[in-house]
Amino acid sequence: MNILAIETSTEVCGIAYFENDKMEGIEEAEIPRKHAASLPMFYASLQDKTNFLLNELDGIAVSIGPGSFTGLRIGLSFAKGLAYSHDLPIIPVPTLQAIAHDCNHDAPFHVLLFSHRDMIYHQSFSAGGQPTSKPDVDKWDEVSSIVEDINLFHVKCNKFTKSKNNAKNVLATAKNVGKLGINNFNDWVIKKPYTLVPNYIAPFEMNKPK
Is-contact 10 60, C-beta < 8 A? Predict the structure, then answer.
């Protein structure tokens, strides 16, 4: 399977090309607030290095959220532009699952992603990396009580997790978006993604009553 994979849900901006299920190239950097300018340049650079052709792709995988509101809009808008130009499907890849993809562990674990203020996106996974809950967002005090004795993999939650010995800092990457997009293509693909929107986790949920 040949796909492009896009990651813009965090401070990382990246795009990767997979040919016959193997990653042939990636352009990626941690560049806060520069996704809109950088993603087109990364795309052009990746195309120059790998010589991929849009009309030979099976689809475009994109990190769909939760994550940065602005980053998610940029990534999905770019993916839609490419998809519409060559009638390609889009594979929306859940962001926390993509982050969890490399977090293999011998016990259940949680993935955390910083949102804003003291709000944290979070989701639980089995030892094998399968999700065991839906992604959610809560204040750190509540998240902390949930994950007190669980291994943690987190993105930009250092100020909250610094006292926890079971916490490891990780980064989002387009490589994982591509791997999950390929592995779950038949279940996740959207052939006519006209109404596809990012999974922000609705604002009212971010202030939901306790």
Answer: no
The band of 165, judged by pLDDT with boundaries at 50, 70 and 90, is confident
- Identify the CA nearest to 15 among candidates 137, 150, 181: 181
Same domain? For 179 and 91 the reply is yes
Same domain, 87 and 12: yes
Number of H helices, E strands in the chain: 8, 10
Q: Cα(17)–Cα(182) distance, rounded to whole angstroms?
A: 12
From residue 129, alpha-carbon distances to 4, 45, 107, 153 in Å are 23, 32, 9, 12
What pLDDT is recorded for position 20?
98
- Residue 10 is part of which domain span? 3-96+172-206
The CATH number of residue 54's host domain is 3.30.420.40
The strand pairing partners of 183, in sequence order, are: none
